[in-house]
């Protein structure tokens, strides 16, 4: 039987740990050495859906332990992924399955280059979840999750476990398009909400912000087309406005990070986009200005 270790047991990591264990697949949460749950040996996660809640108890392990890991789900922030995997690399045997489920792009190539012996997969999810406490998660909205591996058409055998989850999971034979589409949408929404401290819906309600989103979409589309990602950026503005409407009351993850004084994923969203633009000679001044502004906010937070 598969045994999954969860690296990054926040909202999304905790949600999938709950889904896996509910479906009969054992999970272990990987914790920092200073986490008090390590002394107990287990941790309880409570998942709330509306008026219903479910509590599951999980085994826990410190990243520094030596127990082998055969299946690893990584749900940390994009900027933390390489360091987080480095902390457990000694536990990963050649061929170990590693699923990277985070926003942004660029870290996937870094992981594969540094650990070519691992069997790495990428994922994208629209599941809505946020933390309500240290070990409490609200499943705010059911979405869908796509998993894939560049160049691989058929799903591997281990993915049958994910098809059995009480969630909408599917294999993608074209995961690069999936990741690019999500990147494009995030680049048009997240930095603007973070800088203007607004919920997603205000990007459609405030004319100045709606115009800015349109300008960003035009630049993002031009870069995507130059990078060979026409399908990912097709009708991008319409896709973005649909997401804004569907998530009108949401605070983007980047806005939440800025409000909490945390580092954002901007380098793996807009930063990655601009790097591809430079490769293909496509300027994107509006996106470049947003990147600089979000980086400046983070620098101010560090100096506060």
Task: Write down the overall mean pLDDT.
Answer: 94
CATH-scheme architecture of the largest domain: 3-Layer(aba) Sandwich
Specify the CATH homologous superfamily of the largest domain: NAD(P)-binding Rossmann-like Domain
- Counting structural domains, the number is 2
Please, how many helices?
13
Question: Can you write the helix and strand succession as a string?
Answer: EHEHEEEHEHEEEEHEHHHHHHHH
Radius of gyration: 19 Å
* Terminal Cα span: 49 Å
User: In terms of structural class, how would the helical and strand content be classed?
Assistant: alpha/beta
Write down the CATH topology of the largest domain.
Answer: Rossmann fold
Going across the biggest sheet, name each strand in turn: 8-9-3-4-2-1-5-6-7-10-11
The major β-sheet equals: 11 strands, mixed
What is the general shape?
Answer: globular
The total of beta strands comes to: 11
Strand content: 15-25%
> What percentage of residues falls in helices of 4 or more residues?
40-55%
